[in-house]
Amino acid sequence: MRFTGLSAFPITPAAPEGRVDLPALRRLVARLCGAGVDSIGLLGSTGSYPYLTREERRRALDAALDEAGGRVPVMVGVGALRTDEAVRLAQDARSAGAAAGLLAAVSYTPLTDDEVFEHFSAVARQSGLPLCLYDNPSTTHFRFGTELIGRVSRLPGIVAVKSPGQEPQAVAGHLAGLRAVVAPDVSLGYSGDWTTTEALIAGADAWYSVVAGLFPQAALGIVRAAQRGDAAEARRLDARLAPLWTLFREYSSLRVMFACADLLDLCHAAPPRPILPLGEAARRRVAEVIRALDLG
Asked: Do 101 and 77 touch, CB atoms closer than 8 A?
């Protein structure tokens, strides 16, 4: 499995006690499959993976895979504080039929590079599940250096790298640095929706997208323009979404996406506590942006 193009990351609707709302999740997955995204990133940070039990993560995965029906590959978050728990989650994902696992270096006690390398090695070896290295320092509090990414990328079973968004002037150099050290068959992609258009133009293989989890067509337009070499069109479509990027930066993409799903009547779940939903003033701003951009 080589991850390219648009990977859409939906929220995970759940009750306050953490029970996943499977019908609502199925509707979101069906929406993504119908739009023609290249892959689905289930239970990523947008999907609230650290807040769900192993049982609920498996229920969500089974429902998503059933809904996707093999039409779209599903990558699922398997990150956990403990290596043995991450192994079990990856084994669950493999037995369920996921295309790959998304593995972050989740930390409480600060981790060393060698500890992270051994963590990835154990999960890959003991699960047999293809893995995407997930570098998300804003949530895990561990930042991968280029050298460590190169080491991990050469482990058997590592198929992709998901990097955090880079500033426009830095992304080409960041991408070139990774290409120089990773295994040649490992795909390189980026998150951070408001920065990713420039990464795609610079030659990144994939966009791991929050906005695509609810608005796949808006993101697909940017990806397809970049893939055909039309940088001007990709930038035009990206600029059109600037009001949404502003909301993401101000309130976090997670809170904004939950508000969007509620406002559009796609599902009525709230973020997992202690994360609070947006207040009324912020919701009004989100609603105005949705209307202005015709995203409903």
From this structure: yes
- Sequence-separated (6 or more) residues with CB below 8 Å from residue 182: 149, 150, 153, 154, 161, 188
> Is 162 annotated as catalytic?
yes
Tens-place pLDDT, residues 151-197: 999 999 999 999 999 999 999 999 999 999 999 999 999 999 999 99
Summarize pLDDT for 268-295 with one digit per residue, the tens.
Answer: 999 999 999 999 999 999 999 999 999 9
Query: Which of 10, 121, 115 minimizes the C-alpha distance to 72?
Result: 10
pTM surpassing 0.90? Answer: yes
> 251 CB contacts (<8 Å, ≥6 apart)?
278, 282
CA atoms within 13 A on the CB side of 271: 21
27 CB contacts (<8 Å, ≥6 apart)? Answer: 266, 267
> Can you list the domains of the chain with their CATH numbers?
5-229 (3.20.20.70)
Known catalytic residue at 51: no
Task: Kindly name the residue from 51, 108, 134, 208 that is annotated as catalytic.
Answer: 134
What sections of the chain are H helices per DSSP?
Answer: 22-35, 54-68, 83-96, 113-127, 137-140, 146-153, 168-179, 196-202, 216-227, 231-240, 242-251, 253-263, 280-293
Q: Classify each residue of 36-50 as buried b or exposed e, where b means 16 or more C-beta atoms within 10 Å of its C-beta.
A: ebbbbbbbbbbbbbb
Q: Are 51 and 19 within 8 A, CB to CB?
A: no
Distance CA 12, CA 177 (A): 34
Catalytic member of 49, 51, 108, 162: 162
If you ran DSSP here, which 8-state letter would residue 158 be given? Answer: E
